[in-house]
Amino acid sequence: MIDWKQVWLVWRKEAREVFRDRRTLMVMFLLPALLYPGLLLLTAEMGQAQQQRLQTLVQTVGIAPALEQDVNLRKAMKNASLTVLVEKKFDPKTMKLWVGPLTPVNGETSAYGISFDNGDGQARHVVSTLRDELDKCAAELRLAALDKAGLAHGILQPLRVMEFGTGGKEKDTRFLAGRALPALMLLMLVVGCGLMAQDCAAGERERGTLETLLCSPAGRLEIVCGKFLMVASMGVMSGLANLASMTLTMSQLKVSAVASGQTEAINFTLPWEALPGLLLATVCTASLVAAAALLLASFARSVTEAGHMLLPLTLAACLPALASSLPGINLEGAMVTLPFINFCLLVQKLLLGDATVSQVIAVCSATLCWTAVLLVLLAKLWSGETLLAPPEAKIFNLKSWANRAWRERLDLDEGLLLIFGAGIIFFQLGTPLQSADLVWGLAVSQWGFLGLGSLLYLRLHRVRLAPALNLVKPKWPLYLICLLIAPTLQIIGGAATSALFGDGGGEASKLIHEAMMAAQGRIGLAGCIFLFAITPAICEELLFRGALLSSMKGRMSVPTIIFVQGLLFGLMHMSISRFPGTFIAGCVFAWLALRTRSIFPGMFLHAVFNSLAVVLTLCPPPNFEAYVKAHEWQLLVASLVIFPFCLWVIDKIEKKEAG
Q1: Would the CA dihedral through 433, 434, 439, 443 be positive or negative?
Q2: Has residue 607 got a pLDDT over 90?
């Protein structure tokens, strides 16, 4: 049980330290409350002043001597308030642009060529102004030609289209605010929570006060809860300050626009009925950001290192804000469960007045679920002794490497470096290779970058392959059980994908199907099974359930290892629509490797799992899809019965073997 009195004491300790640090408070609260609005107002004022300046500024434009008497050009120059200078060629020192004659084509009466410095913004403005006036002259000439020919003006415009926004100018402004405001709020949440997390976690270690705190009457769980609540509360305060500041700034811009006569320029007010939903979503999202920031900062050995580790969190928060602005991205299906992007979509709907209570509840519930997952990982981390481990300075030296003793496994940081490095190399080099030649590119990417790359990495770090890769011969009944698990895993993964994405996974499946069909014409069905099923099973298992999993043993709990394995395995496949299936498969492969203490059952299951997908894609039985759709619930229920039963049998076999 959690002693909330101790949690309150930890929260008060952190609060006192924060409020003593005035510089942090200035960054967290004065920044959104003063600097951002000030910059926004200053930018708007500068924009208006620049427009007025350009209107009053005398712009000199050169024209060729042949156009000196051109009536239309002279008229356009006069209407654009441009000073004319007759010159034979363009001189950027004395003029912004120069207009010369072109040979008319296709019945044109006149044609002009405009020379200007396209690296000069002011010159571009002059070109735009002159073009507008010339277009007006061209329109007048067209109408005059029609009148002369006795034709109706409408002959040049047989179809006329006009747009009418039913929500008025205010809805336009709210739509635009919904694209910018969530990104700013997320950024301020990351800044506020990040600063607090750095001080609460890495700052404690750097100051040497962490050991004193851990020796206090408060338990590890109470310390974690107290620090999390402090980080989250400061993040909420920062986010709400940002929201209030942006709203007041928009109102100030509206007042300024009305005062200058631009009554339709800005018409933004925050809908009061949306305020409860905004507050609730902000609090839940701040909790998620706080948990993520505190978890990342807990791995850092210094405040500087924590700042570097929080950079990916900033990207993870800002990129979904950009994605939420894409057409067709709606708050439905899997988007409700995706962190950060669901917050952005919900804020957009709240500002427009389109959000429902069920959507607010769904987004907040999903966000809190992700927060709970991160808090469990954070509690596991703080419950161990990893926090007390001193920082290690590992500098490569050839002599020390040669004399280094052989080890049984990688360190955790070495394992994580391997998985992220392999992922970067596989994506950056493997993707171009596969685009150039799918068969050879995939083979080189899998065997070279993942399989042999993992073996080479282990050897360079003086790690013995057999214990690090779990190369232990398992009992033969396990292979038979894996044959039963494979189809049930396919069905469960497919059901999870359909539940989250509906038909959203169709495009990814279509691309994979086209790739397999193209490869089948070159290497046949057997070659496709080897390339798309057996090769990934061997290479990916060596990387994930071999080198990486052994580096996690003893440093993480079993549930944490299984979850992290599934998460990284799903992310490695670089597909949102395939993530549910690959996440579940990664968790199962990890559990199998941990329970059997061998890599081979998971490797066999992985190969059978992939082979089923290849065979059903390239040569499915007659009426296979129709049969699956007609019996999908029966197949899912049977799988949900057979799957856990198979895992129970494996657990019994291993317990009997251990006994």
Answers
A1: positive
A2: yes
The model's pTM is 0.69
* Residue 215 predicted with pLDDT over 90: no
Distance CA 378, CA 228 (A): 10
Name, in order, each residue with C-beta under 8 angstroms of 509's C-beta and a sequence gap of 6 or more.
577
Query: For tokens 């061997």, what's the residue?
Result: 538
* H or E element, residue 97: strand 97-101
Fill in the DSSP letter of residue 407.
B
Closest residue by Cα to residue 491 from 639, 308, 306 = 639
CA atoms of 582 and 570, how far apart (whole Å): 5
* Total Cβ atoms within 10 A of residue 611: 18
Cross-sheet strand order for the sheet of 59-63? 82-86, 59-63, 97-101, 112-116
**Around Cβ 189, how many Cβ atoms within 10 Å?**
28
The domain limits of the chain are 4-48+169-387, 59-144, 410-658
Phi, psi angle pair for 470, to nearest 5°? 55, 45
- Choose among 50, 105, 97, 93: nearest CA to 76: 97
Question: What is the C-alpha separation between 244 and 213, in angstroms, rounded?
Answer: 36
Q: What is the largest CA-CA distance in the chain?
A: 106
Q: What is the 3-state secondary structure (H, E, C) of 151-211?
A: CCHHHHCCCCCCCCCCCHHHHHHHHHHHHHHHHHHHHHHHHHHHHHHHHHHHHHHHHCCHH
- φ and ψ at residue 473, rounded to 5 degrees: -75, 120
Mean pLDDT of 558-574: 89
**Amino acid identity of 63?**
I
CATH for 59-144, options being 2.40.50.100, 3.40.50.720, 3.40.50.2300, 3.40.190.10:
3.40.190.10
Radius of gyration of the chain (CA): 33
Report CA torsion sign: 367, 373, 376, 382: negative
User: For the residues 470-484, what does the mean pLDDT come to?
Assistant: 90
Structure tokens at 379: 């509690």
- Residue 418 contacts residue 457 (beta carbons within 8 Å): yes
Write the CB contacts of 283 (distance below 8 Å, at least 6 apart in sequence). 236
